[in-house]
Automatic annotation (TrEMBL):
Gene3D superfamilies: 3.60.21.10. It comes from the Bacteria. GO terms for molecular function: UDP-2,3-diacylglucosamine hydrolase activity. GO terms for cellular component: membrane. SUPFAM superfamilies: Metallo-dependent phosphatases. It comes from Streptomyces sp. R44. InterPro entries: Calcineurin-like_PHP, Metallo-depent_PP-like, Metallophosphoesterase_sf. Pfam families: Metallophos. GO terms for biological process: lipid A biosynthetic process. This is Metallophosphoesterase.
Length: 312
């Protein structure tokens, strides 16, 4: 009997040890292995000077995350021309002061922002397998699900007020602008499509013709939002939300995007085409996680320094 069951037990023990080691790595190391990606996008009108844009997203701040705070503060040393915050700043109702402390040095620069669902609502414990099941069912996160009920409400108003006081432009289903020394920029933003707060009809009509360049900004890159921006002629769209897949398979990539975007475009620079129009799309993998699933695997936390250059 021992000979019969000895090998399976050893295999089981080996798999358990491997899984435990992977969990320790994903939670203890990679989830705190913050890094900066640099991307160049040839999207500006000919003759326009380069713009350096720092995109931060999906911070999911939890009280006590000192390493994350210090890293975010250090990004001010990049001296970007402006900052784009694509939402999901919180994962703890008590973490607003620490979030604002982390972003304080960045708020010295011009900036724009949109909110995500985790700015409005507190996190909840979820079965990670839910995302795989929803994708198989074609439901994609909350797209098609019932509206949010019974959720903890975050103190998001304090974040909004601090961002506004710093001069950052609120793009919640509206348009805004930044006047920089080298260009007048316009922005069109949406509230979070993941919880059906987007209202594209309020901002439809295409880029601001009086600006040197216009950018579309949204938290979750649902196809309906990308289609609308692209069909209206926006050449660049910035988004977050996906966490880059968060738990990825080495040499394969992401299994889910938590929206109806395909996994090939779960993070980084890609394009989006509608009819005869094409936009650049940049999706940030973000630098945090839901507090109840504080792990990342083959998908380190990030911010991105985008250098916008003139089209050839």
């Amino acid at each position: 009997m021992r000979a019969r069951y000895g090998i399976p037990l050893k295999i089981t023990a080996g798999l358990t040890a491997t899984a435990a080691a992977g969990l320790v790595y994903a939670a203890g190391f990679e989830a705190r292995s913050f890094r900066l990606r640099r991307v160049t996008i040839p999207v500006l009108p000919p003759g326009m000077r380069d713009l350096r844009v720092l995109q931060v997203s999906d911070i999911h701040m939890v009280s006590g995350q000192r390493k994350k705070r210090v890293w975010l503060q250090s990004l001010a040393g990049l001296r970007p021309d402006f900052v784009v915050n694509t939402g999901d700043n919180l994962s703890d109702t008590e973490a607003v002061p620490e979030l604002l402390d982390a972003l304080g040095p960045l708020m010295e620069f011009p900036g724009v922002y949109v909110f995500g669902s985790n700015d409005y609502y507190g996190p909840r414990m979820k079965n990670p397998a839910r995302y795989l099941m929803e994708r198989a069912q074609g439901r994609y996160g909350l797209n098609g699900n019932k509206p949010v009920v019974g959720a903890v409400h975050n103190p998001w108003e304090g974040i909004r007020d601090a961002f506004d006081a710093a001069g950052w432009v609120n793009l919640t289903n509206t348009r805004g602008s930044l006047k920089l020394p080298q260009a007048d920029l316009a922005f069109t933003g949406l509230d979070d499509p993941h919880i059906k707060r987007d209202r594209y009809e309020r901002v439809a009509g295409g880029p601001d013709a009086s600006a040197d360049f216009t950018v579309g900004v949204v938290h979750a890159p649902y196809l309906r939002s990308l289609d609308s921006f692209t069909a209206d002629g926006y050449e660049l769209i910035l988004a977050g939300h996906t966490h880059g897949g968060q738990l990825c398979v080495p040499f394969y990539g992401a299994l889910v995007t938590n929206c109806d975007l395909d996994t090939d475009r779960v993070k980084g620079l890609s394009t989006h085409t509608v009819a005869d129009r094409t936009s650049y799309l940049h999706v940030s993998a973000g630098c945090g996680t839901n507090r109840y699933t504080p792990v990342r695997f083959a998908c380190p936390p990030e911010a991105t320094l985008l250098t916008l250059t003139a089209r050839r």
